[in-house]
Amino acid sequence: KNQVEQSPQSLIILEGKNCTLQCNYTVSPFSNLRWYKQDTGRGPVSLTIMTFSENTKSNGRYTATLDADTKQSSLHITASQLSDSASYICVVSATGNQFYFGTGTSLTVIP
Amino acid sequence: GAVVSQHPSWVICKSGTSVKIECRSLDFQATTMFWYRQFPKQSLMLMATSNEGSKATYEQGVEKDKFLINHASLTLSTLTVTSAHPEDSSFYICSARGTGGLSPLHFGNGTRLTVT
């Protein structure tokens, strides 16, 4: 069964600290993995997209990693800011137009 | 960058009426658009895949006669919630995918539907 699991479900960190969010998947055949940021009441915004051959990809203070062998990905946020408070969603794509969504990690950055 | 416009951003309607939500890709053509429903503190739940010029593909458990989807052009898909009931109150989001296997999904900003 194609599934995407994210952990932790929620996370609270102090402003300026780093954090890492996890995404494990069982989607096959794998096409690519995307991380999205969703602010409350808004649509998700793409942060990174990685294919099978990519191990890491950065977008500013966001760095995503992918281990296609173990089917794991992480999203590392450096020097967190209050505006990083949001839901982070991992989406794994199989071939074609099939997308599998994780349940998201709710991040709260406090001053 | 690619933009998906969703309208309206919020709507309040009376029980029994129908509501139409529009999703437009503003600067790219989208042969496929997706409609999602999201409950508070939960992830997006795919409702249906909208294909330009053909019938939508609905996920299991989604009533196609209640959630009417029309994808009449490469830049517009609409979702009509027919005979809305309070339990249909939710956050509805659309997404569109550009051409190319690695093109990201671009999401609209969602529509908050409240049925009274």
List keywords for this structure.
heterodimer; A: 111 residues; mainly beta; six-stranded mixed β-sheet; five-stranded antiparallel β-sheet; 0% helix; globular; B: 116 residues; four-stranded antiparallel β-sheet; 11 strands
Structure description:
The complex is a heterodimer of chains A (111) and B (116). Chain A is mainly β and 111 residues long. In chain A, 0% of the residues lie in helices and 59% in strands. Chain A has no helices and eleven strands. Chain A has strands spanning 4-7, 10-14, 19-25, 30-38, 45-51, 56-59, 62-67, 72-77, 86-94, 99-101, 105-110. In chain A, strands 2, 4, 5, 9, 10 and 11 form a six-stranded mixed beta sheet that branches. A five-stranded antiparallel beta sheet of chain A has the order 1-3-8-7-6, with no helix packed on it. In chain A, β4 and β5 form a beta hairpin. Chain A starts with a strand and ends with a strand. Chain B has strands at 4-7, 10-13, 19-25, 32-38, 45-51, 57-58, 67-73, 76-81, 90-97, 105-107, 111-115. Helices cover 0% and strands 52% of the residues of chain B. Chain B has no helices and eleven strands. In chain B, strands 2, 4, 5, 6, 9, 10 and 11 form a seven-stranded mixed beta sheet that branches. In chain B, strands 1-3-8-7 form a four-stranded antiparallel beta sheet, with no helix packed on it. Chain B is mainly β and 116 residues long. The model of chain B has no long low-confidence stretch (mean pLDDT 90). Chain B is globular. At the A-B interface, β4, β5 and β9 of A face β5, β9 and β10 of B.
Query: Regions of chain A with pLDDT < 50 over 5+ consecutive residues?
Result: none
The low-confidence runs of chain B, each spanning 5 or more residues with pLDDT under 50, are: none
Q: Average pLDDT across residues of chain B?
A: 90
The residue fraction in helices of chain B comes out at under 10%
The number of helices of chain A is: 0
Amino-to-carboxy terminus distance of chain B = 37 Å
Order of helices and strands of chain B: EEEEEEEEEEE
Could you tell me the strand content of chain B as a percent range?
over 45%
For this entry, what is the oligomeric state of its chains?
heterodimer
- Write the H/E string of chain A, N to C: EEEEEEEEEEE
First and last CA, distance of chain A: 41 Å
**Biggest β-sheet of chain B: count, sense, barrel?**
7 strands, mixed
Total number of beta strands of chain A: 11
Most extensive protein-chain contact, per-chain counts: A-B, 22 and 25 residues
Shape of chain A: globular
E-strand count of chain B: 11
